[in-house]
């Protein structure tokens, strides 16, 4: 019985960071591993395409197939299992916080139409195929857009899903994960993130973080595996490259200086990892995304 409860307990998963963005987005292409039971502090909008599988949302189970799209509220446990995937399979994930939405609704009256939809998200909203198609058309080629253009796309997505008259809710009642347990996990995650944010410019090891948090290296390894769904080295690399992206767009520092300030002592290694991460070199990234000066 104890093992069964542990198996069915959702873990708090940290959404991927995007420097320069107030919300999160991830586009996954091709076959993906099954997604274990987890929850977020944010709302999650997820669109599946060209897949056949199932989803568990708290106490409810539902089939997942082409154009399956859900809006899942904060703290709602969910998982996804795939029976059949292909190279055409896609998963589009959007995350936005309750505070972000509240701020938008406070400052922009137009956003207040979202209020009813957000309340329904506590029971998990399932959208119609036609609306899922419209969302896909909006985001299909938005990956290389500027942050401002991507924000405009997100607003259009929120508008489309708000007016889906065929949407339904999957749960009979709102049931979030235990806040005390989530709070303890959240505190550990925040301490790890804070340490990296203050020391990313310098060499950092698991040992450094474990000493700062007064725990074992294996405990830190488990935190990254459980809550970040990636290794410590992968998270640190993405964090450093994210800061580099911000500096490329907001400063006139040379690529070499930026590489050094974010913790790289080898420019070739920085250029190689940056291209793997963004699909272009640092100079190409700056040229493509930096706002053009007004003449």
UniProtKB/TrEMBL annotation:
Pfam families: HTH_18 (PF12833). The keyword Disulfide bond does not apply. GO terms for molecular function: DNA-binding transcription factor activity; sequence-specific DNA binding. Residues 190-288 form the HTH araC/xylS-type domain. InterPro entries: Homeodomain-like_sf, HTH_AraC, HTH_AraC-typ_CS, Tscrpt_reg_AraC-type_HTH. The keyword Repressor does not apply. Keywords: DNA-binding, Transcription, Transcription regulation. PANTHER family: ARAC-FAMILY TRANSCRIPTIONAL REGULATOR (PTHR43280), TRANSCRIPTIONAL REGULATOR MTLR (PTHR43280:SF27). This is HTH araC/xylS-type domain-containing protein. It comes from Veronia pacifica. The lineage of its organism: Bacteria, Pseudomonadati, Pseudomonadota, Gammaproteobacteria, Vibrionales.
């Amino acid at each position: 019985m104890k093992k069964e409860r542990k198996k069915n307990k959702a873990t708090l998963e940290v959404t991927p960071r995007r420097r320069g963005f107030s919300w999160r987005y991830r586009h996954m292409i091709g076959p993906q591993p099954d997604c274990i039971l987890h929850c977020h502090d944010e709302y999650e909008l997820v669109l599946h395409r060209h897949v056949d599988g199932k989803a568990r949302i708290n106490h409810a189970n539902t089939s997942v197939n082409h154009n399956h799209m859900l809006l899942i509220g904060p703290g709602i446990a969910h998982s996804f299992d795939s029976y059949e995937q292909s190279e055409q399979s896609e998963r589009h994930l959007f995350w936005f916080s309750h505070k972000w939405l509240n701020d938008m609704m406070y400052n922009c009256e137009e956003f207040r139409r979202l209020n009813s939809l957000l309340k329904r998200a506590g029971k998990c909203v399932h959208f119609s195929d036609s609306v899922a198609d419209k969302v896909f058309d909006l985001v299909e080629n938005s990956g290389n857009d500027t942050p401002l253009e991507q924000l405009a796309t997100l607003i259009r997505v929120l508008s489309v899903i708000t007016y889906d008259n065929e949407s339904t809710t999957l749960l009979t009642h709102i049931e979030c994960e235990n806040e005390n347990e989530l709070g303890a996990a959240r505190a550990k995650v925040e301490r790890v993130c804070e340490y990296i944010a203050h020391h990313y410019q310098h060499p950092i090891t698991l040992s450094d973080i474990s000493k700062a948090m007064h725990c074992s290296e294996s405990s830190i390894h488990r935190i990254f595996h459980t809550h970040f769904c990636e290794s410590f080295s992968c998270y640190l690399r993405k964090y450093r490259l994210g800061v580099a992206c911000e500096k490329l767009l907001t400063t006139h520092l040379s690529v070499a200086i930026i590489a050094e300030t974010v913790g790289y002592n080898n420019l070739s290694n920085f250029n190689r990892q940056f291209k793997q991460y963004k699909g272009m070199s640092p100079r190409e990234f700056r040229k493509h995304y930096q706002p053009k000066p007004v003449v």
